[in-house]
TrEMBL record:
Organism of derivation: Leptidea sinapis
Cofactor(s) it depends on: Fe(2+)
Record-level GO BP terms: demethylation
Domain of life: Eukaryota
Protein name: Isopenicillin N synthase-like Fe(2+) 2OG dioxygenase domain-containing protein
Cited Gene3D superfamilies: Alpha-ketoglutarate-dependent dioxygenase AlkB-like (2.60.120.590)
GO molecular function, one term: oxidoreductase activity
Stretches assigned to coiled coil: none
PANTHER family: ALPHA-KETOGLUTARATE-DEPENDENT DIOXYGENASE ALKB HOMOLOG 4, OXYGENASE-RELATED
Length: 314
């Protein structure tokens, strides 16, 4: 089905196509009584729905659960850096996307259904964002992280922006999913995934080992005889709960392990009260790191940064 002028297609909608074309918005049924809010300060999830509950730390009330595989670093960028970053981002043309979003995507051309990857027009990243990638080197969990895709996503409340529950593709994108959150607070809403492993190429996660080991160390050496990340990251118990992860302004968030492979994440329309822009980063899977000539070509191109004001490579 062709995208509508707003960018939505299929079952995905925004306020524009819901109002102009009578498209029925997707109503996600969530039992808020089963919800827990992750606290980045104690690394536990506490019963409740409002993601501002983390601000009660250390005086949490109610029941808590463990939710491994989440890392949040507050104040990853300063307010001045955020202002400068957003000025530069808005100087680059935005492309329409689905569900009320706009995007600026820098990365190789991917076909997840056919498992095809080509360089396409990928020529590296804008120079104004280089310091963010450089700063990853100061985060232990991001040891050896090689950015292969960088995508700015804008969520506009006037368009009813959101993103449906999903798992990031597991054939080409690796374990550590990184996001830098700008302009306003929001939340990732996590729900357990019990569906077909062919969806999201989830079965591919049975073909490579974990990058983040159980003790927190990073292992970038691909070993085909090691237990897969899909198996080692399985939840220790089957829980019928929702976990809400605060995406705090100017923070860095990393998903890995269990929430990366066994939970879907979404951004609800109700959690976008103000304009929000996130910068999402992806790395290759270990199999692409180890055995792909096109992967090597893309990794080489990803080391280039260019001036967005004249598009000359530097």
């Amino acid at each position: 089905m062709k995208p509508r002028p707003c960018g939505c297609k299929g079952c995905r909608t925004c306020l524009i196509c819901e109002n102009q074309y009578g498209a029925a918005g997707l109503k996600l049924s969530l039992d808020k009584n089963k919800s827990y809010v992750y606290c980045p300060l104690c690394a536990k999830a506490w019963s409740g729905w409002d993601t501002n509950l983390y601000k009660e730390h250390p005086n949490h009330e109610g029941h808590s659960i463990e939710f491994p595989g989440v890392f949040i670093l507050l104040d990853f960028i300063t307010q001045e850096e955020e202002n400068d970053l957003m000025t530069c981002i808005d100087e680059v043309p935005w492309d329409t996307s689905q569900s009320g979003r706009r995007k600026q995507n820098y990365g190789p051309k991917t076909n997840f259904k056919k498992k095809k990857l080509v360089l396409g027009k990928f020529d590296g990243f804008p120079q104004f964002s280089k310091y963010i990638q450089d700063r990853f080197n100061c985060v232990d969990l991001l040891e050896g992280y090689e950015v292969i895709e960088q995508c700015s996503l804008e969520y506009d409340p006037n368009k009813g922006a959101s993103i449906d529950p999903h798992i990031d593709d597991c054939w080409v994108w690796g374990e550590r999913i990184v996001t830098v959150n700008c302009l306003s607070d929001t939340a990732l809403t996590m729900t357990p995934y019990k569906g077909d492993q062919s969806k999201y190429n989830l079965a591919c996660a049975k073909e490579y080992p974990p990058t983040v080991l159980a003790d927190g160390r990073i292992d970038l050496n691909y070993k085909s005889n090691e237990p897969s990340i899909f198996e080692t990251s399985k939840p220790k118990e089957d829980r019928d709960v929702i976990v809400r992860i605060p995406m705090i302004r100017r923070s860095l968030a990393v998903l890995y392990g269990e929430p990366r492979y066994h939970w879907e994440h979404c951004v609800l329309r109700e959690d976008i009260p103000e304009r929000r822009v996130c910068i999402a980063y992806r790395e290759f899977t270990p199999t692409y790191m180890a055995n792909s000539s096109i992967g090597d070509e893309i990794r080489s191109q990803a080391k280039h940064f260019w001036d967005h004001t004249n598009k000359n490579n530097v």
